[in-house]
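Please think about what follows:
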Amino acid sequence: MEDKTSPMASPTIMIVEDDKDTREILGLVVQRKFSDATVCAASNGREGVDLFKRQSADLVITDINMPVMGGIEMVKAIRELKPDIKIIVLTADTGKAALEESVGKGFQLDHYILKPIAYQSLFLAIEQSLAEIPGRSC
């Protein structure tokens, strides 16, 4: 079995986004920038939890507002499975309440990316998140 904490293991990045076009473009851009990574995707929080159970990830990039199950509820469920999972939140919601709720759930401010996505900021957040995983470097 592959050791996911080994520096030789390629990272798995899970993208959870309900907008199909955004999800597909984000997947392509992330895969191109991080070519050694395995990128998988889900269209809502419920699918994200199910996918995480089948294929654990090192990093989750998620929207907050999604149908079926939102990003915050999904992260809570995933953190019950893997408490130290790295999370990057993508959102168009700039309201103070959404930010406070996200921070209250353990999101770090430097891992909170507003839409439209500034890809250089996203890449930096991904690099920082992967570098924070013990035994892994970007």
User: Anything to note?
Assistant: Residues 1-8 have pLDDT under 50 and may be disordered.
